[in-house]
Amino acid sequence: MSIQKDAYEIIRTIVGDSNITDDPADCIGYRSGPGGYENGTGYDRVMTKLPGAIVMPDTTEQIQQIMKVCARYGVPYVPYSTGFYGPRSHPHVDSALIIDLKRMRGFEIDAKHYYIVVEPGVIYSQIQQICMEHGAYVVVGGGGAQTSAVANLLNDGWSPLSYRIGLPQRRILGLEMVMPDGEILRMGSLSDGEDPFWGEGIGPDLRGILRGYTGLLGCLGICTKMAIKTLPFQPVTPEPQGISPDTSLKLPEKRVKWLNFTMPDLESIQKAHIELGNAEVGGAITKVPLFWRAIAKAEDKEDFWRIWLKETEESVKNFCIVRIMLIGYTSEEQFDYDYRVLSDIMEELGGIERRTKPSDESWFKNADSAGMWLMTGSYVSVDYIMDSYTQAFKQGVSYMELKDRYTPPLMPDFKDLGWFQGCEMGHLGYFEFLMYWDQREDTSGVDQFYVETSKMNIENGYYTSLLSAHQPMMLTGPKYGPNYHEWILKLKEEFDPEWMCHPPVPLAHDEFVRRSPWMKEVCTWDPPEDLPYPERWKDK
Amino acid sequence: MSVIDKIHQDRFDTPKTPFALDIEDLSNFEYDMQHCIKCKGCYWVDHTYMPGMENAVRCPSNLWKEFDSYGAFGKMRIGLHLLNGELEWSDHLLELIYADPLCGACDVGCKRNLDLETGLTLEALRVKAVQDGAGPMPGQKKVIANIRETGNIYGASASRHSWMTEEIRVAEKADTVYFPGCLSSYQKKELAQSTAMLLNRSGIDFMLLPEESCCGNVAFSVGDIAAAREIAMKNVEKMRNTGAKTLVVSCAECYRMWKVDYPKLLKIRTADLGFEVKHIIEAAHDAWQEGKLSLRNPVNLQITYHDSCGVSRLCDDWEPYEGERGWMGTIEPGLTRRRGRQGLYQITRELLENIPGLELKEMQRTRENALCCAGGRGTSFDFPELSAFSATERLREAESTGAEVLVTACPWCVSNFDSVKPEEDPFEIADIAQILLKAAGQEGGTV
Fold it and tell me: Which segments of B243-357 does DSSP mark as H helices, in order?
């Protein structure tokens, strides 16, 4: 069902005939899923709708005009950059307009002051190449090198490379966004001039509107321009090598190197993270799930399972490898010095160095998150934990135990702990807990596990990232804050009183639980009978 | 019982479903269409090779028109709706399915991480279009009719062998057959001439196929399987009857047809064709390595090389497959995925780099990341705007290298590039056979 004809015609005059469509086949090209991040879940099936139309603006002014038309004619819309973020970045109501931002391809680099300015259509691998040519790098988020840097940083933005500046929101500098009424809001130094070099601006820091720990999934306007902090690298641009699928970046051996150390136990891995951070050594430190190694080794899906099913709970528990990327930021001498410091620390902790290739297969420029779907076909990171090292590990163990209860339908992972890394030079532990399943199985357990993780976090007093729009706010809000849900709804009311922007986010997960019979058994909290958002967006 | 079966039996209940690499039934690719994650590996250049803001995309269709529906990821979703009877054929839907040179960029991109059969799915969508009475496009239908009536895509009544000259030696009987294809036989005769002279120069005796006719590339590529199979059967039979051991082609589209799509149509392995299929690049490389072809004549040119799709991403040997898909999507028996690894990337560059005086200046999108010119697989007959758009974009990239000549390995590419290059532009387009012949000490073309 297309959007209102009058609105469609006006928007057509704004962007031109070739940049808007409501053809059914084009709209199907923008359907949520059936594969992808969080696709194949109940949320995908219950909450997503085919869009009514798609528009591709290429300037901020066009976006302003489109949003004003939407406000005037009551057309709900969803901002969309690369379409990778699964059902949560697709329409949840009928006759919605997708505002596809891929033609927003503006890019500038200020190499001297280490920042870039990008629009939503620019992806990480493009940015990384240009940055490296200027002796800098960006943190390519775990979402992958194919993601829009703007969208990624509005939501998450973690990778082992975030070791030096861990918190993604700290890498967001000046920013421009179009609010639901079509007005432009500029943040950081852009609020007081044309130079977006700094994230802080005059008056209250409005970056919190976009995201706190994680983002609000485009329900409060559209970010059209963002300045992003880059980090100093070293002068040699790594060269690509190989033929697909065996491609990698050849690293300058005297300046950049991945090192793997076998550690005696998990405790020594934690200590290694802390000590290396204290010594300010390295550009990345991480412990990755063992099954990622199996993915890297496997020729194909079948080969993965042949490799993986040889593991046991015992072998997984004893897999204690820490991966460290050393970078000679200033010189070869600094690289050598850091290597000696690293070796001393590892020797003290009982770490044994293993052989590694002088190349980077993933994190710098590729970050091939797409490989996460190889094993089972369905994947989502169910939680991001950012806390002290010891607390993050403790939470990881809780996840592991809860996950075991939901296997199947989750894939047998022999209680693998997940992805753990150090951030902020040893001052923070980061844990990302991942789940994999086959969407052709009965996935009720996947949906239930997702919500059960929130209940587990609440019960144990864990601090967690996936609150707000990613979990039922009526479950998490009263327990955290204890009223952050009320504040989010007040913000929504203030900036988007008609809920035109991606309705019914941020209450979409609450709505999903309400609509889904299989979620009743886990709904142990007391949600309101009628969720507080405009009637016009409620599925009758 | 395998470990997978044991776990499957104990803990999971995924039913096993039959699965075959058979494009005549779109349902074979339902799993693939269900599991596209929109990572757009099919669209972007391999991120490791990402050059920056320019030349970042390798999908010509989605570069031409940017709605997701023009990318493989959009078509995978559309395919599911077609399979389930939830979408009617329309002119616009036909454009989405047919405005696409099926260049294989999406397939190698997907198989970097996910191993979905994207390329075969797109072929199967065209077969379904024909099965449903919607496809192919009008221009393509005319070409197929021409092939039926005259054995060539043009409907020409003239001899296919008018490209031959007195200086070219053709044997009545030989171990090698040279198959020039329609384009070189009628339109780009200098390419056939250069190839034949290069074979002569390499000491490879060759004959021509008796009653030679079109390879059927257009019929196959647009989904007319019945017509394509008939052509395949006749051509393979004719070739087998010659008793020759090797078929040499100079057209990348013919190469892909003979090496990959004939076996696909005949449900046999490439190895079971009964003869070897070689592109002139391979034949020349073999001869050069054996010392039969000398490339010592200086060719003082700065060139850039365009990897034609048929000799790069699309030419892995074909092997029929039938099996079952079960737990976690695993299939039994095992399958060696076709990832484009057999592309003639390295040997081509070895030849070019060993020519004295010649400097190879690579484009940013090379090898499996090359941007297709979009002239082949039936595209130019009904979507000339797309063919012109992509060729122009590729020419821009080629000229930006500073090279004087764009060298390629397919008459379709040569023809498409020629058609968009302004007359006053001194930049030249050449076929690799012309360059190799020049290096072998014989003038054979315009370069």
Answer: 252-256, 262-266, 280-289, 345-353
Q: How many domains does chain A have?
A: 2
A223 with A111, same domain? yes
Chain A residue numbers touching B92 (CB-CB < 8 A): 23, 25-26
Tokens 């199907």 locate to A28
Q: Cα separations (Å) of A238 from A147, A234, A362?
A: 21, 10, 13
Shortest distance, CA A248 to any CA of chain B (angstroms)? 6
Q: Residue-wise pLDDT tens for chain B (447 aa)?
A: 555 566 655 556 678 899 999 999 999 999 999 999 999 999 999 999 999 999 999 999 999 999 999 999 999 999 999 999 999 999 999 999 999 999 999 999 999 989 999 999 999 999 999 999 999 999 999 999 999 999 999 999 999 999 999 999 999 999 999 999 999 999 999 999 999 999 999 999 999 999 999 999 999 999 999 999 999 999 999 999 999 999 999 999 999 999 999 999 999 999 999 999 999 999 999 999 999 999 999 999 999 999 999 999 999 999 999 999 998 999 999 999 999 999 999 999 999 999 999 999 999 999 999 999 999 999 999 999 999 999 999 999 999 999 999 999 999 999 999 999 999 999 999 999 999 999 999 865 445
Q: Does ipTM exceed 0.90? A: yes
Distance from CA of B427 to the nearest CA of A (A): 29
Residue A112 in domain: yes
The CATH number assigned to the domain holding A193 equals 3.30.465.10
Answer whether B53's CB lies under 8 Å from B109's CB: no
State how far the Cα of A26 lies from the Cα of B384, in Å rounded to an integer. Answer: 21
Q: If we measure between CA atoms, which residue out of A319, A366, A454 comes closest to residue B39?
A: A366
Chain A contact for B321 (CB, 8 A cutoff):
no
CATH of residue A79: 3.30.43.10
A115 in any annotated domain: yes
Q: Chain B: nearest CA to A366, how far in angstroms?
A: 5
Q: With respect to residue A153, please indicate whether it lies within any of the assigned structural domains.
A: yes
End-to-end CA distance of chain B: 63
Task: Please report whether residue A257 resides in a domain.
Answer: no
Together in a domain, A121 and A66: no
Indicate if A64 and A87 belong to the same structural domain: yes
Under DSSP, the state recorded for B258 is I
Residues of B in contact with A243 (CB under 8 A): 340-341, 343, 345, 367-368
Q: Which one of A84, A100, A116 terminates a domain?
A: A100
Which residues constitute the domain of residue A14?
5-100
Domain boundary among A232, A267, A291: A232
Q: Are residues A24 and A134 in the same domain?
A: no
Structure tokens at B31: 């799993």
Shared domain check, A124 and A82: no
Test the A interface: residue of B314, B328, B365 with most A CBs within 10 Å: B328
